[in-house]
Design a protein that fits this description.
about 350 residues; alpha+beta; 11 helices; about 15% strand; globular
Length: about 350
């Protein structure tokens, strides 16, 4: 979700990628390239039965270091074909693309993160932790997990094959658990991947992750109150960020205290000026250099803290609201209790 700056010499020299702005063929920069010709590099990394080359596969990748004190401990992503990585990342290849998406979804669930936290380990030193991630659920759970994961991960043209190969498993009739104009209508999905296929705004991506938390918890046989207890006791940084992350009516983050999203939205001074803005309000932003109110209920922010988007403008639509994860868990649990019960 970040890309290194052109000159990347410090740990903070990375910019958040705006998924609503990237083109379909977007590829982030890398600080690491093979130190030999590509053909030799490609042939050297085999390691798969059947003769397939490792480099040609989609891989579920994990950050090797585990942040016990951070917002989340286990950090994972699906990296595209013909992408490699260095030793600080651990990755696995899974034969079935739909299984890959399902396990990727489970690896992002708060219950899986809870298990990793409870080990107290500081890194993925061997395969034991990854091997213990649940990998098989009944069909209806599986379909919903593949559906949400495909919408979260298939963000660019590099994931077209992953989308098409998994489409037969994706339950396209499975709508989100609530109606909101910021959430995609899933009935419009087709086998042909387009830029509009995945979830791009921050609000709908968060909502898909909340639903994954609930689906995995139900599949594991947990009760709702156990899921809430796990969240309340083991994830204080996530709670803090949830309590001070605000979304506009287009699903974009207008302000967040999350250190992992530095540079996203307004800074604190700008936010305090517009936080209470309503659709009919016009606010005087003349004393704020990078903020303007061009029409009632809307503010325009000029980006200055991102090399990637320097000088570009973003429009935020009032009113602005934050989310309550516990309340959302209850709503989603009630919805899927009906789905799985039926």
């Amino acid at each position: 979700y970040k890309t290194p700056r052109e000159v990347c010499t410090e740990k903070g020299h990375y910019d958040i990628i705006d998924l609503t702005q990237i083109p379909a063929d977007y590829v982030p920069r890398t600080n690491y390239v093979p130190a030999e010709d590509l053909l030799t590099f490609k042939q050297r990394n085999k390691g798969l039965e059947g003769g397939e080359l490792w480099i040609d596969q989609y891989k579920l990748a994990f950050r090797a270091m585990l942040s016990q004190a951070g917002e989340r401990t286990l950090t994972s992503a699906i990296i595209p074909q013909r992408v490699s990585h260095i030793h600080t990342v651990k990755s696995i290849v899974i034969d079935s693309h739909s299984d890959l998406l399902s396990i990727a979804a489970v690896s992002n669930a708060i219950t899986t993160d809870f298990y990793i936290k409870c080990t107290g380990k500081g890194g993925l030193y061997d395969n034991s932790l990854i091997n213990n991630i649940p990998a098989a659920f009944p069909k209806l759970y599986e379909q919903l997990l593949v559906n949400r994961a495909a919408l979260l991960y298939c963000l660019s043209a590099q994931y077209v094959t992953l989308w098409k190969d998994s489409y037969s498993v994706i339950n396209i009739s499975a709508q989100f658990s609530k109606s909101d104009p910021r959430l995609k209508d899933l009935s419009t999905l087709t086998k042909e991947w387009t830029w509009d296929t995945p979830l791009r705004n921050a609000y709908e991506r968060r909502w898909a992750l909340v639903e994954i938390d609930v689906i995995v918890a139900m599949a594991l046989g947990l009760e709702l109150e156990e899921l809430i207890l796990i969240y309340n006791v083991q994830f204080p940084v996530l709670q803090q960020n949830e309590d001070d992350t605000w979304y506009d009516q287009q699903g974009n983050i207008v302000f967040t205290c999350s250190k992992g999203l530095s540079g996203v939205g307004l800074d604190r001074k700008e936010w305090e000026r517009v936080q209470s803005m309503q659709p009919e309000d016009s606010i005087d932003c003349s004393k704020l250099e990078n903020l303007a109110c061009t029409e009632p209920g809307k503010i325009v922010h000029r980006i200055t803290k991102s090399e990637l988007y320097m000088g570009q403008e973003r429009t935020y639509v009032a009113p602005f609201e934050k989310c309550d994860r516990v309340a959302d868990y209850r709503l989603v649990w009630a919805y899927f209790s009906g789905v799985f019960g039926a």
